[in-house]
């Protein structure tokens, strides 16, 4: 019998991830969000970011793996999620998500 170890208050989890240009183009196609800030290097060079940025909604998809497979591998659904975008996310950079269980 498998016993699932449920997260406890103050547990901290980390998850390393990155995004590729191919993923961004696929997400643009699937979502219909083909804003040039995400998919056109020539356009993006002239923006304050200087290059393409990852879609906001796609960037928070990294959390889905943590919720769906690392923390709660069976029988869970996500009821709500809040996100605040503080800085742009770019392709080809390794990011680390840090999760702290609060309640």
Describe this structure in words.
With 103 residues, the chain is an alpha+beta fold. The chain has a single domain, classed as Thiol Ester Dehydrase, Chain A (Roll), CATH 3.10.129.10. It has five helices and two strands; from the N terminus they run βαααααβ. Strands 1-2 form a two-stranded antiparallel ribbon. The radius of gyration is 16 Å and the shape is elongated. The mean pLDDT is 88.
Topology of this protein?
Elements: E1 12-17, H1 21-31, H2 36-39, H3 41-45, H4 56-59, H5 62-71, E2 95-100
Antiparallel strand pairs: 1-2
Structural key phrases:
single chain; 103 residues; alpha+beta
What name does the CATH topology carry? Thiol Ester Dehydrase, Chain A
| Percent range of helical residues | 25-40%
CATH class: Alpha Beta
CATH homologous superfamily grouping? Hotdog Thioesterase
- Ends apart, CA distance between termini: 27 Å
Q: Measured on Cα atoms, how large is the radius of gyration?
A: 16 Å
Number of domains: 1
Q: Describe the global form.
A: elongated
Biggest pleated-sheet summary: 2 strands, antiparallel
Instruction: Give a count of the beta strands, DSSP E runs of length 2 or more.
Output: 2
Q: What is the spatial order of strands in the main beta sheet?
A: 1-2
Residues in β-strands, percent: 5-15%
**Mean residue pLDDT:** 88
Number of helices: 5
Low-confidence stretches: none
Which sequence of SSEs, written as H and E, runs from N to C? Answer: EHHHHHE
What is shown here, in short?
The chain has about 100 residues and is an alpha+beta fold. The chain contains five helices and two strands; from the N terminus they run βαααααβ.
């Amino acid at each position: 019998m498998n016993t699932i170890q449920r997260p406890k208050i103050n547990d901290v989890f980390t998850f390393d991830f990155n995004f590729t240009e191919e993923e961004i183009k696929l997400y643009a196609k699937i979502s219909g969000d083909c804003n040039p800030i995400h998919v056109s290097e020539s356009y993006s060079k002239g923006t304050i970011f200087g290059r393409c940025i990852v879609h906001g909604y796609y960037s928070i998809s990294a959390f889905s793996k943590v919720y769906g497979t690392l923390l709660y591998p069976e029988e869970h659904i996500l009821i709500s999620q809040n996100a605040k975008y503080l800085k742009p996310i770019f392709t080809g950079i390794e990011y680390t998500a840090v999760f702290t269980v609060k309640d």
